[in-house]
Amino acid sequence: MRVFAWWLAIAWCVAACSPAAAPAPTSPPAASASFNPARVERVRADLPTGYEFTPLPARAEPVALWGLGPQWTADPPACAALGGTAAGAAVHGWSASGPGGIVYAVVADGPAAHDSATVDACGSWGLTAGGTSGVVTVVDPPVVAGAPTLGLSADVTTTVEGGTETHSHAETFVAYLGDHVAHVTVVTDPGSSAQALGPGFAADLLGKTVAAVRG
After folding, report:
1. pLDDT single digits (tens) 132-180
2. Which among 64, 103, 112, 195 is least surrounded, fewest beta carbons within 10 Å?
3. Which residues, including other chains, have CB under 8 Å from residue 143's CB and lie 6 or more apart?
4. What is the rounded CA–CA span in Å between residue 79 and residue 152?
5. What are phi and psi of 22, to 5 degrees?
6. What is the pLDDT of residues 6-29, one digit of tens each?
7. What local confidence, expressed as pLDDT, does residue 132 receive?
8. pTM of the full predicted structure?
9. Residue 91 sits in which domain range?
10. Which CATH number fits the domain that encloses residue 131?
11. How many CA atoms lie within 13 Å of 66's alpha carbon, on the beta-carbon side?
């Protein structure tokens, strides 16, 4: 009986002193597996009739869509990070022009972080590129589940030879989606008599774009 008890004690000690089994790795979230930037094409259907669709321009970061060339500068310089979101990244998306202005829907590959400190420091900032200059203001962005967002309003003036000025207004809304960034921009002519797209159109289209690419 004592021999049996001795062996039982040894068996208990071996079991107690053995390292615990490592937990099984967890699967990535289903949303990550279903993410497809090409599905940005689906939100074309959310534009009203009368819009002509074209491919995105070679430069599709927000500041380029506002009409500034590649040698642009920001004042303060740190604010350039807001206008140059995902600059140079591969992109998916489209542009469309119609009576309410020009609409851009973009999903860029590559991570970009939402820097709340920069956003707080850049409530209003200037930008310049040659004969084009403007003022950018941070505005309230839409709420997108599971993603930080950013809202920007830009008023841009271009002076051409002879002193003639052209003016444009742009609204851009950005969603930071981990390994991708989605942004929607609507550019309008403040002096146009054409009926503009409804209030909140760009913000709503960003939400629809994120929903589409997430699947």
Report:
1. 999 999 999 999 999 999 999 999 999 988 889 999 999 999 999 999 9
2. 195
3. 149
4. 12
5. -70, 140
6. 333 434 333 444 444 333 332 233
7. 97
8. 0.84
9. 31-214
10. 3.40.1000
11. 31
